RNA sequence: GGCAAGUUACCCAAGCGGCCAAAGGGAUCUGACUGUAAAUCAGCUGGUGUAUGCCUACGGGGGUUCGAAUCCCUCACUUGCCA
């Protein structure tokens, strides 16, 4: 993968003497099992795992928190197992408000492949403490219902299962909960047990919203094997303004460049709130404590320069995509937002900037409305008209007053920049 | 298995024969102010495009009626109580 070189540049901050100290400083430990024991366990190389369920064709920023936590642990000498939920994805973990719709087996299997592929870009699968990929379908598919109920189910008390947040929230909601989703915690417990047996895996990491499912495994191992194993739960990343983190225009930010372009990724991070940017640098970059302290000062003294946001955007875009794509995204952002005068840019700069944006090929003389729809800036003609009425639409940075105005190419070029609002830009390439 | 209540747009939720493309929140989007920030204020939010039109939409299907989100039947799902 193109990001192998990026992996090689990563390291933990040597100013921390214990990996747990660094994780805590980065705000990555929301909950954990007994800290003393955890600290002791982490002082020598251990094997740990984190699971990713195939609920979509790509991982998103929430998963990136997990991936980076795993990577930091790997850099500290521990052995990561990246688990893809070929089995748990067929069942579905309980969401707080609604029952999931089951995806068919082919879809889940295809998504498993995609998630596995993405995992390979964030962890090192070569070298001395190489990561390994595991799929829980490998050990669950061989269980018969009877074996499952006798060997695993017997260790679970319904009272305790019901009291877990994810389940009780659903029991108290209108949606209720199916037996299928109710059983999810048992499957996750089984995963940990199997990995403990097969790989001597003694720690699991995951999101704090999964705490109930994480403890399912430690409890099971304690009962069956009489051993204490460990957990680290990362906090749910939230924004200072209370809005959901990791969404842009209501859509998730995906790690797959087909779903979220490097440019969109860069823009997302560039728009990080001042109040959040330092926390984000800690969680999503490998900058050291000292470097981040410098940015903290910059944010306090000259927030309008947005140095921290720029660095954050560049770093994370490189991490998720590549150095080259990250720099292109940055250059495109500078070109399109910078001077305000697109005419001063040469065709080459502008073309490469537009390549980062959604775009459409249209015949000369096409209507502005057509361009808005064709580029995907709006979803319907009505929405396009509404946007124009609201004064949201510009062509080549010049505001459009009426839908009848001509869609002119920029200067002597055969392209135009069309925008809805300040941040939604698209390119139009004229043919003929 | 029985009884009761419920299923409304992205989410919550009102409406209980015509004035319903559906109140009110929330969320997204847009404008102003700014730093591509936050906060604040304002506006939009089914489609078609200009027709007091038409199409689609109040869980699915069927019916009553000039007219149904609203009444009836039926199916599915959800919740609660009883078994």
Describe this structure in words.
The structure is a single chain. With 432 residues, this protein is of the alpha/beta class. The protein folds into 3 domains: 4-234, Rossmann fold; 247-337, Tyrosyl-Transfer RNA Synthetase, CATH 1.10.240; 342-431, RNA-binding S4 domain (Structural Genomics Hypothetical 15.5 Kd Protein In mrcA-pckA Intergenic Region, Chain A). It has 21 helices and 13 strands. The strands form 3 sheets. The protein has a 6-stranded mixed beta sheet, sandwiched between helices. Strands 9-13-12-10-11 form a 5-stranded mixed beta sheet, sandwiched between helices. A two-stranded antiparallel ribbon has the order 7-8. Helix 15 (274-284) runs parallel beside helix 17 and helix 18 (323-337) crosses helix 19. The longest helix has 18 residues, at 105-122. The chain starts with a helix and ends with a strand. The model has no long low-confidence stretch (mean pLDDT 91). The structure holds one RNA strand of 83 nucleotides.
């Amino acid at each position: 993968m193109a990001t192998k070189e990026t992996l090689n540049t990563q390291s933990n901050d040597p100013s921390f003497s214990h990996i747990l100290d660094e994780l805590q400083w980065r705000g990555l430990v929301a909950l954990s099992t007994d800290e003393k024991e955890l600290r002791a366990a982490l002082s020598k190389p251990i094997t740990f795992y984190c699971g990713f369920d195939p609920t979509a064709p790509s991982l998103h920023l929430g998963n990136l928190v997990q991936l980076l936590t795993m990577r930091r642990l790997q850099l500290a000498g521990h052995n990561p197992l990246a688990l893809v939920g070929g089995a748990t994805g067929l069942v579905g973990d309980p969401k707080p408000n609604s029952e999931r719709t089951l995806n068919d087996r082919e879809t889940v299997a295809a998504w498993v492949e995609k998630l596995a592929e993405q995992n390979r870009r964030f962890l090192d699968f070569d070298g001395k403490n190489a990561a390994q990929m595991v799929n829980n379908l490998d050990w669950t598919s061989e269980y018969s219902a009877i074996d499952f109920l006798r060997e695993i189910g017997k260790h679970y008390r319904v009272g305790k299962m019901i009291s877990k947040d994810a389940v009780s929230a659903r029991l108290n909601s209108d949606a209720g909960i199916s037996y299928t989703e109710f059983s999810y915690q048992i499957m996750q417990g089984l995963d940990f047990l199997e990995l403990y047996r097969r790989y001597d895996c003694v720690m699991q990491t995951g999101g704090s919203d999964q705490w109930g499912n994480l403890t399912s495994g430690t409890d099971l191992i304690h009962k069956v094997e009489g051993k204490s194993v460990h957990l680290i739960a990362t906090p749910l990343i939230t924004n200072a303004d209370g809005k959901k983190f990791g969404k842009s225009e209501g859509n998730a930010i995906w790690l797959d460049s087909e779903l979220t372009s490097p440019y969109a990724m860069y823009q997302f991070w560039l728009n990080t709130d001042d109040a959040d940017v330092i926390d984000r640098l800690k969680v999503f970059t490998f900058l050291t404590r000292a470097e981040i302290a410098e940015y903290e000062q910059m944010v306090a003294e000259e927030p309008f320069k947005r140095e921290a946001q720029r660095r954050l955007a560049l770093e994370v875009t490189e991490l998720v995509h590549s150095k080259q794509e990250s720099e292109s995204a940055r250059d495109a952002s500078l070109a399109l937002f910078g001077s305000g005068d697109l005419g001063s840019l040469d065709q080459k700069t502008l073309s490469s900037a537009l390549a980062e944006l959604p775009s459409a090929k249209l015949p000369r003389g096409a209507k502005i409305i057509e361009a808005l729809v064709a580029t995907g800036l709006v979803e319907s003609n009505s929405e396009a008209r509404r946007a124009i009425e609201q004064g949201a639409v510009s062509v080549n940075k010049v505001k459009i007053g009426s839908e009848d105005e001509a869609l002119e190419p920029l200067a002597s070029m055969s392209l135009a920049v069309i925008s809805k609002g300040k941040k939604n830009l698209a390119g139009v390439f004229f043919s003929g």
